[in-house]
Specification:
CATH superfamily of the largest domain: Isopropylmalate Dehydrogenase
Radius of gyration: 21 Å
Order of helices and strands: EHEHHEHEEEHEHEHEHEHEEHHH
Number of domains: 3
Structural class: alpha/beta
Strand content: 15-25%
CATH class of the largest domain: Alpha Beta
Shape: globular
Number of helices: 12
Largest sheet: 10 strands, mixed
Bound molecules: nicotinamide-adenine-dinucleotide
Amino acid sequence: MHTVTLIPGDGIGPEITEATKRVLEATGVSFEWDIQNAGEEVYKREGNPLPKRVLESIKKNKIALKGPITTPVGTGFRSVNVLLRQLLDLFCCLRPCKTYQGAKSRYKNIDLVIIRENTEDLYAGIEYEKDSEGAQSIIEFVKKSTGKIIRQDSGISIKPISVYGTERIVRSAFDYARKNKRHKVTAVHKANIMKYSDGLFLDVSRAVAKKYPDIEFEDKIVDNMCMQLVQKPELYDVIVLPNLYGDIVSDLSAGLIGGLGLAPGANRGDEYAVFEPTHGSAPKYKGLNKVNPMAMMLSGIMMLSHIGETTAAEKLENALASVIKEGKSVTYDMKPTSDDPTAATTSGVADAVISKVA
Ligand code: NAD
């Protein structure tokens, strides 16, 4: 019996979580689900989108399966997703992007793994609002120490990248490569422009790479990386990035394999792991039983492997792959056109997968 914290989340979260829970249970592995709500509705009810009980539950169980949580744009509460990763020190975001036969994509045979640093960079949450005392003192400090002028009406976000944070994420990328028989790690940066943050990321990546002579290493500037991934994705294998580039390149890579509906993820630290799809809460589809639950199911498969249930993980992945290959019981985003009347519902996909697991 595995006790897992289950966070249904906002928008489409509850429906894809229910579908995922059902297919995981169909593998025969027994779970005790510690259901913990967090997000927009909880914020309205309790005044805090991430109550202490949620963190305590993950700390107790060590493992969580999480649906997406809405982040209000501009105002309102800060991202619960980012906060969770920071508070639990889930520094490694692992996002495999693999094409399944039958998936609607411009590319075949993609097999990339994106490893994104999760706690630093522009996502560290150190920001100063326009006209605030903090923003004004930074503007004065920068003027005094560099002679450079930041416009008075600026909002400011700080981008910290440390040796400690970079070393552990790059080591995770190489360890992952070694363990999973991957041949190359590519570090992505913009060190030509940001010499002290991205420059540090690059220097540390090179130093760590020297300790793994069995794995090929290269680096790429992020803009070039985006173009390369669109033109020649087959040249890449494991890609390690600071937080912001990792976020963007994850979605780009999801686009290579047939969209966000197929892109799973894991946020891992030394003590805890939270499994969640790459996509967000897609609020316009809330309650329609329409969206693709496969990204969350694939995240569930990653969770099964993580807890040592590798046979169940393989069985479930094969069932999912077979549903995708048949192309019958898949949601609108995997059909030739999005208004295809034969598109399956979210729960219909779960039924189809369960029928193949049994
Ligand atoms: P989104 O990923 O929710 O949706 C973008 C579009 O992708 C959707 O309109 C839909 O067309 C498609 N899509 C997403 N998931 C799909 C699925 N399972 N099946 C089929 N199509 C799918 O991105 P957004 O609209 O930018 O963000 C919505 C909210 O989610 C925001 O509040 C954002 O902050 C939040 N978000 C949360 C997480 C997370 O919880 N980890 C991640 C990203 C975004």
